[in-house]
Every structure is written in structure tokens, then in C-alpha cells.
TrEMBL record:
Record domain RanBP2-type: where: 593-622
Species name: Tripterygium wilfordii
Primary site of residence: membrane
CDD domains: TDP2
Protein name per the record: glucan endo-1,3-beta-D-glucosidase
Cross-referenced PROSITE patterns: GLYCOSYL_HYDROL_F17, ZF_RANBP2_1, ZF_RANBP2_2
Catalytic activity: Hydrolysis of (1->3)-beta-D-glucosidic linkages in (1->3)-beta-D-glucans
């Protein structure tokens, strides 16, 4: 009976043990899949600690992942029964034996893996190191070695626990900038294709060694140092992929995405990138001036925080690549250059080379001593400079400045230097003591001495559990309160707290505890602020009856309608934060209901015309804004150059002032005037076609600039029933710059000119949707289905009012941008065949590392291919964004009988369809004037009547703001908005 009575308890213990074990196993597995930062351990060190001391050191530093360049038995034994995971490596000099013999591979696994596993947690085998680039003669052995080692792991039933891969140099990826155009070196395809298929099949990572340091060194003056060091770049230095419009704030993310795009080009999309090496040297010779302790500290500290932030990359925000830092120790036995011996975080005796700033990244790397550092104002800096820095810290810097307000604990001593020290340290601690966060343009310095004094405890102080002024705060009217019947009166100080963070926290609390449970929303919000200890208090009344309603019953305060800040009536009649006047009770809600975007940093609602938040100056995301700075603009960095298609920043540095070869003929029209027509009532020369198609000189008076007179009309003859119009327009895939209004204006041009066939370039899915909902859409047949439109980031599209015989598309085999030839065959009255084709030929995209990605060869080949495809037709019109540069690409390839419509009908006129001088929307860009868009024709049954430019006029009443650097001063320009950055071309033909 006794055993029967204990049976339920035994079952319970048994199932509890099973459940607990399963839960722990699942939790452990989840931890194993979390992104991590590991270290490479090289052993070319003269005074390297013993393996036992090495492992103890790793444990003290909380390092959980290491990579060895071999399979050192002493280190593997020392790692036994620790939780440190290790990658072992097959040295390059052993590839021949392992790649030539399955038995050798099995023996290697037996000696170097099975002998230690599972006591030593071996997670992967790295087969060689950068074999394809360092010893290409051994490349054919790489896949046989990988397959043989994997087979040995399968035989030991360890293939699911231990992965097999090989680290590659980043140089196997060609044209890495912009990432969407990247691809693996095609000479390696015979190896990369089966290798990626193997990695996909076995769930193994693509191991890549990626060094932003070398990218920067090879492109000094081109790639900003801040981008390489993970420092937040200025808007002008953000890297933008022109094909995807993804923004890159650091070089490493761009390199990782380049690897993903390269794999995608080989139809592999399920392999994760593992960065097996990345780092920054702390010392170099005279040729390596950027190999410094400060840069090494900054890079590795920011790298660690970047990984632990788990923000992924712009292409894959859901995937954060783990990274192994190169390296743990300085390998002082390495041969020159000097930097080769100075990549380590520590010296061989385990003393740190520099102190990492990785606060907020858990306990990883215990050499972070920043918990004992503070940021204070420098004694040698003048008060005016310190005051300016203090204003920034308490304003845009969002430091907590509540404690330096009158009556608060850190108000005394009441001087700017003391107040600034508290504000500087508040910002420094808030930023996790990150490198560069204690600078304030030279007004601040780091100290290890605690600046706290009396009751004033600085934010970074180790002193704990102080009772703030001995006050105890109790709240009323809140269901959150643990003492719901307690009451307190509150008067909010009109100081400048870190208010830009308040709204986010308020919103979260309101979602959890809706404000409908409180007397009113403002009461609830302000009580929350006090509860969160984010606003100071002046006094606490003891009579609850005098404080009912809190601030709302206080006639001495008012809430700003714009930014919600609580202002005192004793102040000037404007909001202290945003300077807005109080809104009258009967004010119209129209302004508040206007479309706005919400700042992700402070949640402030900004007008769509603002490219930066009015409150905290945070740049707006592309997805939520329609007025960002022009992606082609480099005005914030006067040394940068803007070329056609090079929206991927940073761009090449200018070599000094040079004349633009395209403007030397002086045939430029000033901003605000029409192309070829002066903005006056004086007589001007125009060219008119006679009946034989020849040009005559003539006079035409009173030509005025108006929205209907967009260009000189070469032929004034009225349209006839036999006349056909073909429009080509690059609509510009900039979705963030007034896309809806630009497309509406473009639609009005279509309705005005009523083209029979339309050729669009750079149409995005969203632009397609806008067109599809337009009133003019129903008149046309479209070459793109809704499904096809949703499958591409942007594309060419053709529309036809005429009966369509067929639509077709032919991809260019040499295009890395997915460019193709689009053709529509239409039925014309009289049964005369007519083919209209369009394309967006390969774009010039100069970018690091070589700056030679002008793609002229590809573009010329594509033009020849297109003409060759089209030449069989008796009547052909080929128009589009050819990206053509006569100086770079030569003359456009035309067969006998083919003509360039602009040259034939507008001889002597430049024909610039991309013109930063006349297109005022592009003001601030470097002068760039090119005839990118063209019509070339071969017509047997038709004759060219005229060719005109359209879309030269700004959209009435519409503008956007853009920053421009003028004489070292950043100015905000208000610029007009045009339908596109290109002008459109309208070709008119008629039957012979």
C-alpha cells in the first residue's frame, strides 16, 4: 500500500524531470541560435599564456565562441567541460592529403574532433582559409576535402551538430557596392555553385572574412571613416543602393548583404553568412595612419554592440550575422607590415591593448572598465562653448537635465560648467559610454573620478539606493497605483527634461492601461511622467482637495498642441520647446489632421515636407517620408562627386575644380528659363520644318514661359488623323519624394499630350498602383500584369492606346541590374506594321573599390543587341533611358537607315534630359548635364514630325527641403518639385 500511495508522486517527479529537461534543452538550443561575438585565436605570440590559463582567461572575459586556425590538442583539452564553443580548422597545407583521400579525411576527424567531442564543444570545421584567393592552385581540392570531412562526420552521426564550411576572402565578391549588384567572381563558378549547394543541403553557413578597414584604406577619401567604424553617418554620407533604395549606415552591413545578393544570383537563398574574421589594427607604419588604438577601440566596440543589438542588415533585418573578431591576441611574431602584429584585443600576457566600450552588451569581454568612467566639462574651455554644448545635451541630445533645475539636487553650484558636467555625463551614460559620446566638440573629457558631490549623484556613479531629497511620491487617480487612495498635488517644472523619450514610454503605458480609466488623458500622462521619474516636482501639497485634476485644474499651465509640452503661463506666450503659440479653443483642426510622419526616435509628428524631425533632428525613414534629401545629392560633403546613377553613397572625391566637358560650348540655359527659349518677349530664333522636312530659319516673337510652352515646338503643323505620338519617360523610382503628387503631375502630362504609346522606365510596384488607379489608365493596354509588377523592385512598362499584337521582353545576358528590352507590336491604321521598344540600359554606378563601374562596355553591348533584335522590322522606334554618354560610350550604334530623332530634328540643341541646372529640383547637386534619354528610329512607312521635351515645369505649389553645404555652412534649401529627375521625350510621327 505504501508504494501505491507514492506512485502519483513518482509520476509527477518523473514528468516534471522530463518537462524540465526538455525546456532546458529548448532554451539551450535557442541560446545557441542567438547571434554572438567570438574571437579568433592566433598563436604567433612570443609570450602566449598556457592553454589552461588561456581557457581561464576566456571564461573570465565571458568569451563563449572561439575559432582556432588548427586543432591544437592542448587547447582543445583545456576547453573540455567548459561551455566555450570552438571552430577547429584544417590548415591549408593539409588540403592535399584530405582532398585526395577519404581515409585521410576520416582520420583527421577522428584525431581532431572525435577525440574531444562532446566534452569539448566543437561546432564547426573550417576547411582551409581563403583558399580560393591565397592558393588558387589548391582550389580544385576544396570541395573534395569538404565532402570527405562531412562524410566522416555522417559516419560518426555528428553531421547535425558539427558543420563544415570554408572561410572566404571578401574579394571573391565583385562589384560589392551597391550590394544589389554584387556577384561572385565568375571564374570561381565551378567551385562556388556546388559549394553553395552543399552549404544549403547541410545547413552550414557561408564563412566570410570581412574587413571594413581594408575597404577604407583602399578607398580613402571615398568611403567615410565613420561608415567604416559604425559611427552614425550624416545624411549625405549614407550609402543608398539605387536598385533597392536600402540605406546602409556602415560598411560591414553592406559587405554582408553583398554576399547575400551574390548567393541569390546563383539561386541560393537559404544560407546564412557567418563572419569568421573582422577587426581593426591598433598600430601601423607610416603608410597605415588609420591603424590607431582609438579607431580599433571604436570599431570593435561598435561591432560588438551592433551584433548584440540584433538589428540585422538592411536586406535581412531578421538575420544578424555572428562575428569572430580578429583577433584575441597581438601576434607579435608576424612579419611586416606593422599592422599584421597589432590586430589583437590583448597582448599575449592577457593585458588589454585598449579598453573596449561595450557597456550594455551583457558581460561579454570583462576588460570593459567604462563602468568607472564619467564625462565632465573641460576646465580649459570657455563658458560660451560649454553653454552651447549644454544646450545641445539637454535638447537634441536628450540628456536628463531635470536634476540641474532650480531647487533640484544638482542645481548647486549654479554655474554653467557644473551644470554641463552633469548633462554631459547623463548623455555619456545614456549612450552606453560609447566612443565619441564624450566629446561635445572638445568641451568635454572623460575622467575616472566620480564627480558626484553632496546629494548630487551623477548618472554614472556607483553609489546606489539614494533617496531623492528624502521625498516619497504617491499618486492619485491611477489604476496603476499601489496606493489608489493616496493623493498628492503636483506642479511640473518648466525645465527641459529628456522629453523626446517621454511619448514613447507614455504610449506603451497607455496601451497597457488605456487613459479612459483616468479623469482625462493629460492627467494620466503627466502622472505617468512623474511615476517614471522623468520630470522634477516643485512641491507636494498635503490637501488633496486642492489638487484634483492635477495640471488641468491649474490655470498656471497649458499644453502645447504641437509637441504636448507643458508650459507655465508665467513664460512668454510660446511653447518653450517648439516655440508654437497656444492654440485657441476654436482653432481649425485642419492643420493637425494634415498628413504627417512620426519620428521613430521621439514619436513627434512632422509635416511630410520635413526631411528631419523638428524636435530631435532624426532623419526620416524612406518608407514614411515623401521629402528626403535627394539621394543623388552630395551637397553635405563638398568633396564628394555626384554622377549619373551613383545614388549609392559615398561617391568619388573630386580631384579639384574642372570644367564640365558638356558645358564648355556655353549652350546652357539659366535656372528658371526654358530650354532654347529665353524668358522674355523679345523675338527669338526658332527652327521650322518645311514640307520637305528641311529646316528654315525664322523669327517667332512673344514666346513666353508658361506651363503649356514647355519646349520649342519644331513643327507648328496641326495634328492629323495619321499622326502618332510616342512618349518615353523615366519616372524616377524615388518613392520618398512626393511620389503621389509627382505621378499625378505626370498623369496630367499624359492627358495633355495624349500619347498613343508610352514607354516608362523605373516604375515601382507602388507607382504602378498609382497609375492603375488614374483616370487615364483605362484608355491603354499595359505590358505588365499586377503579379509581375509586384515581383520586381522596379521595371520598364509599355502602354498602348493602339490595338496590340504582342508584348514581349528579352533580358540582356550581360546585365547585372536585370535590364531588358521591352517590345510592343501595334496595329496602325492602314495595316502598317509598327514596333515600339524601350529599355533602361545599364546604369553607370561608380563606387568603391575600383571606381570603374561605369558599365560602358555592357551598355554598348546592350544597345547593339537591341538594335540587332529590332532591325528585322520595317518600322521601329526604340526609345528609353539609354544612360548614354557620348564621350564614354561613343556614338550610339545605328545601322544604315536608322536615325537619332533628336539629332535629326533638333540639330545644334543639346537635348539634355538630365540637367541639374534647369531641373531646379536637383539644385545643390554637382553640375551634370547629359542626353541620357533618346529615340532612335528606322521608319519605312512613317516620317518623324517632331520631338519635344516635356515635364520641364515645376509642380505648382509643391516644394521640398534639402540641405546644402555652402562655405562650410549647412543651409536648408526649399526647392520645387518636378515630375521626375529626368525630362520626358515626346516623339510625333505621321504616315508617309
Amino acid at each position: 500500500m505504501g508504494n501505491s500511495e507514492n506512485t502519483p508522486m513518482l509520476f509527477f517527479i518523473f514528468f516534471f524531470f522530463i518537462f524540465t529537461s526538455t525546456s532546458l534543452s529548448t532554451a539551450q538550443k535557442d541560446r545557441d541560435t542567438e547571434p554572438f561575438v567570438g574571437v579568433n585565436i592566433g598563436t604567433d605570440v612570443s609570450n602566449l599564456v598556457s592553454p589552461t590559463d588561456l581557457v581561464s582567461f576566456l571564461q573570465v572575459q565571458k568569451i563563449t565562441h572561439v575559432r582556432l586556425y588548427d586543432a591544437d590538442p592542448d587547447i582543445l583539452n583545456a576547453l573540455s567541460k567548459t561551455k566555450i564553443r570552438v571552430i577547429v580548422s584544417v590548415p591549408n597545407n593539409q588540403l592535399l592529403a584530405i582532398g585526395s583521400s577519404n581515409a585521410s579525411a576520416a582520420s583527421w576527424i577522428g584525431r581532431n574532433v572525435l577525440a574531444y567531442y562532446p566534452e569539448t564543444l566543437i561546432t564547426a570545421v573550417a576547411v582551409g582559409d581563403e583558399v580560393l584567393t591565397t592558393i588558387p592552385s589548391s582550389a580544385p581540392l576544396l570541395m573534395p576535402a569538404i565532402e570527405s570531412l562531412y562524410s566522416a562526420l555522417v559516419a560518426a552521426n555528428l553531421h547535425n551538430e558539427i558543420k563544415v564550411s570554408t572561410p572566404h576572402a571578401a574579394s571573391i565578391i565583385l562589384d560589392p557596392f551597391p550590394p544589389s549588384q554584387s556577384f561572385f567572381n565568375q571564374s570561381l563558378s565551378s567551385i562556388m555553385v556546388p559549394m553553395l549547394q552543399f552549404l544549403s543541403r547541410t545547413g552550414s553557413p557561408l564563412m566570410m572574412n570581412m574587413y571594413p578597414y581594408y575597404v577604407y584604406m583602399e578607398n580613402k577619401g571615398v568611403v567615410p571613416l565613420d561608415n567604416a567604424l559604425f559611427k552614425p553617418p550624416t545624411p549625405s554620407k549614407e550609402m543608398v543602393d539605387p536598385n533597392t533604395l536600402l540605406h546602409y549606415t556602415n560598411v560591414l552591413d553592406a559587405m554582408i548583404d553583398a554576399a547575400y545578393y551574390s548567393m541569390k544570383n546563383l539561386n541560393v537563398t537559404d544560407v546564412v553568412v557567418l563572419v569568421t574574421e573582422s577587426g581593426w589594427p591598433s598600430k601601423g607604419d607610416s603608410k597605415e595612419p588609420y591603424a590607431t588604438i582609438n579607431n580599433a577601440d571604436t570599431y570593435n566596440s561598435n561591432l560588438i554592440k551592433h551584433v548584440f543589438d540584433q538589428s540585422g542588415t538592411p536586406l535581412h533585418p531578421e538575420i544578424t550575422s555572428s562575428v569572430y573578431i580578429y583577433e584575441l591576441f597581438n601576434e607579435d611574431l608576424r612579419s611586416p607590415p606593422v599592422s599584421e602584429a597589432n590586430w589583437g584585443l590583448f597582448h599575449g600576457n592577457s593585458t588589454p591593448v585598449y579598453l573596449l566600450h561595450v557597456s550594455g552588451s551583457g558581460t561579454f569581454l570583462a576588460n570593459d572598465t567604462t563602468n568607472q568612467t564619467y564625462c565632465i566639462a573641460m576646465d580649459t574651455v570657455d563658458s560660451k562653448t560649454i553653454q552651447a554644448a549644454l544646450d545641445w545635451a539637454c535638447g537634441p541630445g536628450r540628456a536628463n537635465c531635470s536634476e540641474i533645475q532650480p531647487g533640484e539636487t544638482c542645481y548647486q553650484p549654479n554655474n554653467v560648467r557644473s551644470h554641463a558636467s552633469y548633462a554631459f555625463d547623463s548623455y555619456f551614460q545614456k549612450e552606453g559610454r560609447a566612443a565619441g559620446s564624450c566629446d561635445f566638440k572638445g568641451a568635454a573629457t572623460i575622467t575616472t573620478t566620480d564627480p558626484s558631490h553632496g546629494n548630487c549623484i551623477f548618472p554614472g556613479s556607483m553609489k546606489k539606493n539614494r533617496l531623492k531629497n528624502g521625498r516619497k511620491v504617491v499618486f492619485t487617480g491611477l489604476p496603476l497605483s499601489t496606493s489608489p487612495k493616496a493623493h498628492v498635488g503636483i506642479e511640473i517644472a518648466t525645465c527641459n527634461p529628456p522629453w523626446v523619450l517621454l511619448t514613447q514610454r507614455i504610449q506603451k503605458r497607455e496601451e497597457e492601461h488605456p487613459s479612459k480609466h483616468t479623469p482625462n488623458c493629460l492627467n494620466f500622462k503627466m502622472t505617468l511622467l512623474l511615476r517614471l521619474n522623468l520630470l522634477p516636482t516643485r512641491y507636494f501639497a498635503t490637501n488633496p482637495s486642492k489638487t484634483t485634476g492635477l495640471l488641468l485644474s491649474n490655470p498656471m499651465s497649458w499644453s502645447c498642441k504641437k509637441c504636448t509640452f507643458i508650459n507655465s503661463q508665467s513664460q512668454k506666450p510660446t511653447c518653450r520647446i517648439c516655440l508654437s503659440p497656444p492654440s485657441p479653443p476654436s482653432s481649425s483642426p485642419s492643420s493637425s489632421s494634415a498628413p504627417k510622419w512620426s519620428c521613430k526616435a521621439c514619436t513627434f509628428s512632422n509635416p511630410y515636407r520635413n526631411s528631419n524631425c523638428e524636435m530631435c533632428n532624426t532623419r526620416a525613414p524612406v518608407s514614411s517620408l515623401s521629402c528626403l534629401d535627394d539621394l543623388k545629392d552630395t551637397s553635405l560633403d563638398g568633396e564628394l562627386d555626384s554622377s549619373v546613377g551613383s545614388v549609392f553613397l559615398p561617391l568619388r572625391r573630386c580631384k579639384g575644380k574642372t570644367k564640365n566637358p558638356d558645358t564648355e560650348n556655353g549652350d546652357c540655359v539659366e535656372v528658371g528659363k526654358f530650354r532654347g527659349v529665353k524668358a522674355s518677349n523679345e523675338d527669338v530664333n526658332v527652327k521650322i520644318l518645311d514640307d520637305d522636312g528641311c529646316f528654315e530659319s525664322g523669327k517667332k516673337g512673344g514666346v513666353e514661359t508658361s506651363s503649356k510652352a514647355e519646349a520649342v515646338m519644331v513643327n507648328e503643323s496641326p495634328a492629323t488623323g495619321s499622326e502618332l505620338k510616342i512618349l518615353s519617360y523615366n519616372v524616377w523610382f524615388r518613392e520618398d519624394l512626393e511620389m503621389y503628387k509627382r505621378m499625378k503631375a505626370l498623369g496630367e502630362l499624359i492627358q495633355l499630350h495624349s500619347p498613343d504609346v508610352i514607354c516608362f522606365q523605373e516604375v515601382t510596384p507602388n507607382i504602378f498602383d498609382i497609375f492603375q488607379q488614374s483616370s487615364w489608365w483605362k484608355e491603354y493596354h499595359c505590358s505588365i500584369s499586377k503579379e509581375m509588377a509586384c515581383s520586381r523592385p522596379y521595371f520598364c512598362m509599355q502602354l498602348s492606346k493602339l490595338p496590340v499584337k504582342s508584348f514581349s521582353r528579352t533580358a540582356f545576358s550581360n546585365s547585372i541590374m536585370g535590364r531588358e528590352l521591352c517590345v510592343v507590336e501595334v496595329e496602325v491604321q492602314g495595316h502598317k506594321p509598327l514596333v515600339v521598344a524601350t529599355s533602361h540600359l545599364e546604369s553607370p554606378c561608380p563606387a568603391p573599390p575600383k571606381w570603374d563601374q561605369m558599365y560602358s562596355k555592357e551598355r554598348v553591348e546592350q544597345a547593339n543587341t537591341a538594335v540587332d533584335i529590332l532591325k528585322k522590322n520595317p518600322n521601329v522606334i526604340f526609345g528609353g533611358d539609354m544612360n548614354w554618354d557620348d564621350k564614354l560610350d561613343g556614338q550610339f550604334p545605328l545601322l544604315d537607315g536608322w536615325v537619332d530623332a533628336w539629332v535629326a530634328r533638333r540639330p545644334g540643341e543639346n537635348g539634355w534630359t538630365y540637367d541639374t541646372k534647369t531641373n531646379q529640383m536637383l539644385s545643390g547637386n554637382r553640375t551634370l548635364q547629359k542626353r541620357l534619354d533618346r529615340f532612335v528610329c528606322n521608319l519605312r512607312d512613317f516620317r518623324i514630325n517632331r520631338i519635344d521635351m516635356i515635364g520641364l515645369e515645376a509642380i505648382p505649389g509643391l516644394s521640398y527641403f534639402k540641405e546644402k553645404k555652402v562655405k562650410k555652412e549647412v543651409k536648408k534649401l526649399e526647392l520645387p518639385v518636378l515630375p521626375s529627375d529626368h525630362y520626358g521625350l515626346l516623339l510625333t510621327i505621321f504616315h508617309r
